[in-house]
Amino acid sequence: MTEFWGAVHLIRHPGLDPGSRFFFSHLMRGEDRGGWLYIMADRYRGTMYVGVTADIRSRVHQHRTGHGSDFCHRYGLVWADHTPLITDAIAHEKRLKRWRRAWKFDLIERANPEWHDLFYDLA
Fold first, then answer.
1. PANTHER family given for it (predicted)?
2. Which residue, 15, 42, 49, 100, is the most exposed by fewest CB within 10 angstroms?
3. Which residues are bridge partners to 82 per DSSP?
4. Mean pLDDT per 10-residue run, the chain (123 residues)?
């Protein structure tokens, strides 16, 4: 669901609630650093987690240390894509979560055929 708030078009997401600190500190001042859409997996073609974040290094570290989502604390980062706007990453995340598993496998394997953990490749 989308809504309009002032002149800003929002995609309904907890981090984009007009009352949230994120909304005012980044979007209202025009300091959007973009967003990362990412996929983590427990093994080759195993269970996958699709997420979005503004800071990929910190978010994956949070996953691995059990902060935030404990669901994938042992998962590896197998795919990531940066977008100029966090709202674009959120919209893509919503679409990607509806994709069939085979489509996600194809997406990952085009960029990372061996499903290596890409976390250590982040500069």
1. BSL5627 PROTEIN (PTHR34477:SF5), UPF0213 PROTEIN YHBQ (PTHR34477)
2. 100
3. 36
4. 36 49 46 88 97 96 83 92 97 98 98 96 78
Q: Nearest-5° angle of CA 45, CA 114, CA 43? A: 35
pLDDT at 111: 97
- Partners of residue 9 on adjacent β-strands: 4
- Strand pairing of 48-53 and 35-41? antiparallel
Q: Give yes or no for a contact between 51 and 42, defined as CB atoms under 8 angstroms apart.
A: no
Alpha-carbon distance values, 23 to 20, 36, 82, 110 (Å)? 5, 17, 19, 34
List, in order of start, the domains of the chain with CATH numbers: 1-31 (no CATH), 34-121 (3.40.1440.10)
End-to-end CA distance of the chain: 35
Name residue, tokens 């404990």. Answer: 70
